[in-house]
């Protein structure tokens, strides 16, 4: 870990009151400047103070997962395994008097047991997995546009596509990909909690350092996702504009990525039971329009790699639940 990420050297920027915003501006700019952040998450709680007249007591806990330090311009950095947690306490009547503390969590080194060591999933593994399985996954979903697969649920399309790719792999003498297990479809290569104040864009750096890059054939998973699109409708020769807003929500949704327009933050997908009920259709999602919820992207990988897929799993689920 670079020296500039030592706990005592991490800037807190409390004077900017980033933690009082709704939603909080996290990661705040000074933190983002320290290095590549692969994931971030936060939680907070508010309780009325027992002391009359001083308002509500607030506690914010945020966490960031750092990428490994790398000077390479050709290969994106992978996870360092290091997480920085930040806790801020303040009173609603005096946020400028907030106090904060920082804690780094380092990866633990497990001792060797009688079981053989699990091999870590490398960039090469992920690239090879895409080359092996993506063509058959894409061929399957594209050939079923306009049809209903199985029970018509979104998850079923991804599962059947992986199953099809597995059958093809076995016929060619290769191991099959892991089938969807719940909402997990392989190795997690990207996860981000969206907020309106910090859009998911390439220019912001969020999409600029995804391990191995997002590729067609990867699987998109949205949780409590909300997309907001604003556009102007022109009326008459006077070109008078009328503002319109479209909101799209998903409690949980699965889609197969078929096109990646990274600079536009747009993913082309084939999905089932999305905007068209129980039917397979083509669609696209502009991640910069995602204002809440969690987006995850999985790379289908071979079954022998599943147990070792922790290298690129940068999930922070539960990390902010306690200090």
Describe the structure.
Residues 117-307 form the BBC1/AIM3 cysteine proteinase-fold domain. InterPro entries: AIM3_BBC1_C. It holds the Pfam family AIM3_BBC1_C. This is BBC1/AIM3 cysteine proteinase-fold domain-containing protein. It comes from Trichophyton verrucosum (strain HKI 0517). The protein is mainly β. It folds into 2 domains: 3-105, no CATH class; 123-321, no CATH class. 13% of the residues lie in helices and 37% in strands. It has helices at residues 29-32, 123-143, 154-171; strands at residues 37-48, 56-67, 79-91, 94-105, 187-193, 219-235, 240-261, 266-272, 280-286, 290-299. The protein starts with 28 loop residues before the first helix and ends in a 24-residue tail after the last strand. The model is unreliable at 72-77, 110-118 and 308-313 (pLDDT under 50).
Compose a concise summary of this entry.
By secondary structure, this protein is mainly beta.
Strand order of the largest sheet: 5-10-6-7-8-9
Count of helical regions: 3
| Strand segment tally | 10
Uncertain regions: pLDDT < 50 for 5+ in a row? 72-77, 110-118, 308-313
Rounded average pLDDT: 82
Strand content: 35-45%
Approximate shape = globular
The whole-angstrom Rg is: 22 Å
Head-to-tail CA distance between termini: 21 Å
Structural class: mainly beta
- Largest sheet report: 6 strands, antiparallel
Helical fraction: 10-25%
Order of helices and strands: HEEEEHHEEEEEE
Number of domains: 2
């Amino acid at each position: 870990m670079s020296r500039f990420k030592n706990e005592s050297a991490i800037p807190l920027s409390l004077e900017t009151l980033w933690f009082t915003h709704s939603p909080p501006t996290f990661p705040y700019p000074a933190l983002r400047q320290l290095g590549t952040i692969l994931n971030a998450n936060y939680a907070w709680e508010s309780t009325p103070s027992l002391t009359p007249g001083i308002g509500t007591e607030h506690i914010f806990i945020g966490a960031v997962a750092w990428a490994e330090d790398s000077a390479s311009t050709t290969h994106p950095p992978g996870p360092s395994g290091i997480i920085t947690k930040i806790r801020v306490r303040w009173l609603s009547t005096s946020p400028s008097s907030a106090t904060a503390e920082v804690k780094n969590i380092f990866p633990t080194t497990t001792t060797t047991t009688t079981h053989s060591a699990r091999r870590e999933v490398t960039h090469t593994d992920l690239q090879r997995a895409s080359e092996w399985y993506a063509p058959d996954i894409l061929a399957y979903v594209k050939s079923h546009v306009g049809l209903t697969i199985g029970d018509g649920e979104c998850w079923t399309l991804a599962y059947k596509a992986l199953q099809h790719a597995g059958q093809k792999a076995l016929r060619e003498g290769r191991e099959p990909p892991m089938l969807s297990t719940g909402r997990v479809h392989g190795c997690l290569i990207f996860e981000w909690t969206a907020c309106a104040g910090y859009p998911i864009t390439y220019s912001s750096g969020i999409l600029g350092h995804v391990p191995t890059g997002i590729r067609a054939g990867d699987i998109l998973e949205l949780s409590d996702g909300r997309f907001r699109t604003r556009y102007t409708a022109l009326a008459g020769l006077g070109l008078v504009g009328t503002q319109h807003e479209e909101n799209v929500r998903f409690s949980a949704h699965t889609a197969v990525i078929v096109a990646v327009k990274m600079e536009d933050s747009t993913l082309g997908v084939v999905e089932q039971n999305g905007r068209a009920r129980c039917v397979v259709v083509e669609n696209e999602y502009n991640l910069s329009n995602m204002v809440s919820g969690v987006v995850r992207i999985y790379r289908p990988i071979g079954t022998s790699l599943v147990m070792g897929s922790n290298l690129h799993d940068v999930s922070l689920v539960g990390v902010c639940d306690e200090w």
